[in-house]
């Protein structure tokens, strides 16, 4: 039998969103001193999102690896490439690829 889930109160979800945003900002600031701590911040942000049923914003979803959950910094522990209308992130930690669709500007002329 399927379990029914209730949404959490709106105030709790708003607090969870604020904490997730704050954790990703902290992870970005502290990465140079302690990469392990920034990975832990990403893990905590994911757990908060799952507990309160809050989606992680799109700009932050691309900042961590979907397979090993490490905080990604382009040029340091990941590579970002643009190929065939896709943006490809390759993680140096687990050697996996994440592909995101990319729509080029339609009005731009390429010379």
Characterize the structure shown:
This protein has 111 residues and is α+β, with helices and mostly antiparallel strands. It has a single domain, classed as Single alpha-helices involved in coiled-coils or other helix-helix interfaces, CATH 1.20.5.420. Helix content is 38%, strand content 15%. Strands 1-2-3 form a three-stranded antiparallel sheet, with no helix packed on it. A hairpin with a 5-residue loop joins strand 2 and strand 3. Helix 1 packs antiparallel against helix 2. The radius of gyration is 17 Å and the shape is globular. The termini are far apart.
Please report the total strand number as a whole number.
Answer: 3
Strand percentage lies at 15-25%
How many structurally independent domains? 1
CATH class: Mainly Alpha
Kindly provide the radius of gyration, computed on alpha-carbon positions and rounded to a whole number of angstroms. 17 Å
Tally of separate helices? 3
Overall mean confidence score, pLDDT: 92
Q: How widely separated are the two ends? A: 60 Å
Q: What composes the largest sheet?
A: 3 strands, antiparallel
Model regions low in confidence, pLDDT < 50 over at least 5 residues: none
> Which strands sit side by side, in order, in the main sheet?
1-2-3
Relevant CATH superfamily: Immunoglobulin FC, subunit C
Q: What is the correct CATH architecture?
A: Up-down Bundle
Give the topology string: H per helix, E per strand.
HHHEEE
